[in-house]
Known about the structure:
Layout: H1 7-11, H2 14-20, E1 34-38, H3 50-68, E2 72-76, E3 78-79, H4 83-93, H5 103-127, E4 138-139, H6 143-158, E5 170-172, E6 177-179, E7 184-189, E8 193-195, E9 204-206, E10 208-215, E11 222-227, E12 238-241, E13 255-257, E14 264-269, E15 282-285, H7 291-300, H8 327-340, E16 344-349, E17 352-357, H9 360-366, E18 371-373, H10 377-386, E19 394-395, E20 405-410, E21 425-427, H11 431-441, E22 447-451, E23 455-456, H12 458-468, H13 477-482, E24 485-491, H14 495-510, E25 515-521, E26 523-525, H15 558-569, E27 575-577, H16 580-604, H17 623-644, H18 648-676, H19 683-704, H20 709-718, H21 746-765, E28 776-781, H22 784-792, H23 794-801, E29 805-809, E30 819-825, E31 828-833, H24 837-867, H25 872-898
Parallel strand pairs: 1-2, 3-4, 12-14, 18-25, 24-25, 26-27, 28-29
Antiparallel strand pairs: 5-6, 7-17, 8-9, 10-11, 10-16, 12-15, 13-14, 19-23, 20-21, 20-22, 28-31, 30-31
Amino acid sequence: MAKQYSPTMVEKSWYAWWESSGYFQADSASRKPPFVIVLPPPNVTGALHMGHALTVVIEDAMIRWRRMSGYNALWVPGLHYAGITTQVVGERELVDIRNDIGHKAFVSEIFKWKERSGGTISNQLCRLGASLDWSREGFTMDEQRSSAANEAFARLHKEGLIYRDYRLVNWDCTLLTSISDTEVEHIHLKEETMLQIPGYSAPVQFGVSISFAYPLEGGLGEVVVATNRIETMLGDTAVAVHPEDKRYMHLHGRYAVHPFNGRRLKIICDAELVDPTLGTGAFKITPAHDPNDFKVGKRHNLPFISIFTDDGKINSNGGAQFEGMPRFTARVCIIEALKAKGLYKDTKSNEMNLGVCSRSALDSVRFKKIEIIPQHYEQEWNRWLENMHDWCVSRQLCWGHRVPAWYVTLEDDQEKILGSDNDRWIVARNECMARLEAQKKYPGRKFELHQDPDVLDTWFLSSLFAFTVLGWPHDTADLHSFYPTSVLETGHDVLLFRIAQMVMMGLQLCGDVPFQKVYLHPIVCDMRGQKMCKSLGNVLDPLEAKMKDYPYGIAECGADALRFALISYASQSDRIKFDINRVVGYRRWCNKLWNAIRFAMGKFGDHYNPPATATVDVSLMPPVCKWILSTLNEATAKIITALEAYRFSDATSAVYFWWQYQLCDVFIEAIKPYFSNDPQEFESARAASRDTLWVCLDTGLRLLHPFMPYITEELWQRLPQPKDSCRHDSIMISDYPSVVEGWTTDNHENEMYIVLDAVNKIRSLKPPSETHKRRPAFAHCRGQEMISTILRYQSIIVSLSSISSVKVLKENDETPANCAAAVVNKNLSVYLELKGALNAEVERQRLRKKRNKIQKVQYALTRKMHAAGYLREACQSVQEKDMRELMAISETEEKLDDN
């Protein structure tokens, strides 16, 4: 092994080997439980910055951990076309030619620029160690995604969720907002049912059909209609019958009269809506309050009369008799008023589908179908969705996915302005299908098709990506195996619009939420606390440096140090103030790991055969070996618990603490004497320590791998392999450690805490100039249990404290003279013999004070010599005297050090 860790040497080849070995790929036919993440596709506008890097390293840590834990782990990569942003950047890049070429040529040039930019991003992802399944990579404007976008648009348009006109909307009277069809679920009622409605003290009747009569104009009798919602009759503007229904042929074109306001209601014929076999064959028409009636109203040019206020009360259009009444209160009053006029017929139980506001995107979180982490963002999610409004999905750009809608102009059109007649628009999956649709709509007529020049909103395509990248709308094996995905991990600033749209699209188009959890990480800021973004010019490339904040440059740190630093920042707060010095610190820590393995390799030797499994017999081990295995168990439990709870910084803290402060600083230092002293005396301890060290390194590297993949693979591959073992070829497909029964020994951990506290106290007693000087120490113990503990760990105390010996004193033994003392606990005190060291230290302190005083005088004299020439000679005389005294002080200090 090289004497020092080099990120470049370690990271240069592992990624290509991992990928070529197929370790990143998931199998849709696997019986392992799936764990799936779709990387939020970064925009193709340039290179990744630290915010993207945080997303990447957190997701890779999750994927690597789950892959090692026995899951069929799939991490899908992709790129997003980023409409407006890409066009702006693309135009800047193509500034010399954009005015000289047409629309298609310009888009073609942007595609070329996108390929270059996308290549930069892919390279960055690889260098960060992102274990993405590149065989499933998608681009939101590639052929497959474009086809899926057309399919989604056509389906949503067909279902009335995308429209180009005034449209009837679902309205929530409590939240005072429109809601989309995805947020309406239908309850099937087989019979009369009483339901409790918010805002009403008594239950409301549903599942019934109420029949009543409208008087006919001119004394021609009456026409009986039926409805599930009697209150909507206040907004009726017509009565519809089937044109071939003989019962009503004499009424075609005549009028009924509204009993409460005198409004004339035309008798219209509509074969598309009316089924003459249902009820009386006559249907009341309320265009403003029923989707089917809305279409009838459009076809027959009927008035649209809204009778409800925003909070669900009858407005002035409903008539003075009912104005101001809550909707379901008016329902009862209207029936009574109809009875009074002799127009009420009957009420029958009626099987029906009742549309209720479920706001499914809301309920997905409310009923824990989706869990948002951190949980406090649920309030923001609920607040936004409860006040959500329709949004525009078109943009007036060149770069983007064209809206799949075509306008039909006929040969004999007087006015051929695009979009002047909303009935001329045809939405289809492609132009060929649009042409077929136009031929059906205008048989035998010549026409031209003009595709809408607008492009789709960038969020529209990104909201589909979680399932289009798995093959939707086709019935693929990936879609069956990997949808819904496991986690969406992203910054908290895109929670509302982006994630909410993804949930809506998943529910509507796939019938299920697109992911089961949402983890929202903090926003990465620069050292001044400003969010990193290109417009501010403070973006920091994950693998490069910005001279503005780091004028002396950044030492080569590598991907592992950067990954660990970013993940350690991911505590559940809103913002990260990024400091490159933290990365530099973890770069040094990588060197510590490197040296730990180098030490171990030297102690293992060429012929060492490790334990066949990662378990060892602890019964015959020295206490320090039992202790380190117990702490390893504790660290493993903490890391797994933290990962499962998405507390990534807690996981990195636990693995760092164990490696740094327990394995390297204590265990490795404690076992060194076993390898350097008498081979006969320490043979048993040396063998147990060697096995324990191998188990710790093998397990510890696997614990660390999700956070630092490169260095852990490099070091794990160098560890000796047990003979006849089934060891995996790579650490990334090895088993993630779990708690081992029998390793946890609380008594050894408690004893070591006392021992390490004693070591720290002894170290603190050493004079600053004698940090490495070995002197005898004493441990004054109260009680046999404390005496036994100190005797058991006597050699470790000597080794870790850098003292010559430690003598155990019983409770009644006399306190040693010439010692510095410190209390460890109520049963243990420690003493360090100093002899003349205390007096020498006092003398050193006196000399330091004298030197400081002389130097202050020297400074003052120098200033006076510059100020007044006639004092120069006198000042020089004092200076010479002081210099002789300073030299004497230095000589005295040297003698003290020698002694």
